[in-house]
Amino acid sequence: MKMKAILFKKKGEYSLEEVPVPGLESKEVLIKVNSCGICGTDVHIYEGNFPANFPLIPGHEFSGIIEDKGKDVKNLKIGDHVTVNPNLPCGKCDQCRVGNENLCIDLLNLGVRLNGGFAEYVKAKNSLVYKLPDEVDLESASLTEPLSCCIHGIDLAQIKPGECVLVTGCGPIGLLMIQLAKICGAAKIVATDPIEKRRKLALSLGADLSLNPNDVNIQEAIGNFLPGKPEVVVECVGKSSTQEESIRLVKPGGRVIWFGVANPDDEIKINPYYVYKNEITIKGSFVNPYTTKRAVRLLSEKRIRLKELISHRFSLEDFDKAMMTHMKDPDRIKVVVKP
Ligand SMILES: [Zn+2]
Ligand SMILES: [Zn+2]
């Protein structure tokens, strides 16, 4: 049997191809893809800035319906609506054995090192597959993976009820962070983004103030509004300038989470005395260790709004338009491909 899939052949080159539907090992399931979101990582892979195995079917944010399963899969059945944690740890390395699966030295990820969801079908090991209640919207469920990554970031931020939070950057990630900070009991949430549509969405999803960093002095505006500095800054831009700035924006004693994906070659200037004297904690947050179940629950219990983050939908045939929209359209939030 054949299926349509997007194939990244090498850096900078992809096309829509007819490829064989993947065969299953005994503990794998075959999923008919409903929706697969485009993520910055897909662009990094395409541009050759992220280590991946070519030729590759990309796509790591997807949902679908189980079409077939291997003989040893007992926890799932054909017809189940599912979403997938794309990150498969080796289970054997030092990090895996102390509970840091996201830091596994041999992390196999669907859509990066194994084939992913920009195809009619994708296969996954049953341990990575999460059943969804039938009434959960499958398109929204394709955002489970980014949501699970954000939950990890929020865990690291240790937001206490009554604290104030600044989220810099209101793409899909920032807009999820705002909602999670609210759930954690943040007293006030400030969001920044140069794009008006995103700032408006930030306000409707729970931010109390949204600022255009090109128009105002962020530090001053936040200082007047809160008043003072926020206890937590979640950096969701991934630029060295905003990461550097985040250290000065947080309250002494506060936590800075670097969530945005920086260019691997970037360096920034930090004043170590300032960090020391003010007891600033800076934490990186990488992928989604043990958070997919909680993401599925938030989704199932309708505690988080995902549908509003999806701004564009494309077919596999229009993958090129989908990529262009993701990279060039300032009004896009999440672009989803529907095979
Ligand atoms: Zn992603
Ligand atoms: Zn490992």
TrEMBL record:
SMART domains named in the record: PKS_ER
Alphabetical keyword list: Metal-binding, Oxidoreductase, Zinc
Superkingdom of origin organism: Bacteria
InterPro entries: ADH-like_C (IPR013149), ADH-like_N (IPR013154), ADH_Zn_CS (IPR002328), ER (IPR020843), GroES-like_sf (IPR011032), NAD(P)-bd_dom_sf (IPR036291), Zn_alcohol_dh (IPR050129)
Chain coiled-coil ranges: none
PROSITE patterns xref list: ADH_ZINC
Domain Enoyl reductase (ER): residue ranges: 12-337
Cofactor: Zn(2+)
Entries under Pfam families matching the protein: ADH_N (PF08240), ADH_zinc_N (PF00107)
Gene Ontology molecular function terms on file: oxidoreductase activity; zinc ion binding
CDD domains according to UniProt: threonine_DH_like
UniProt record similarity statement: Belongs to the zinc-containing alcohol dehydrogenase family.
UniProt protein name: Alcohol dehydrogenase
Species this chain originates from: Aerophobetes bacterium
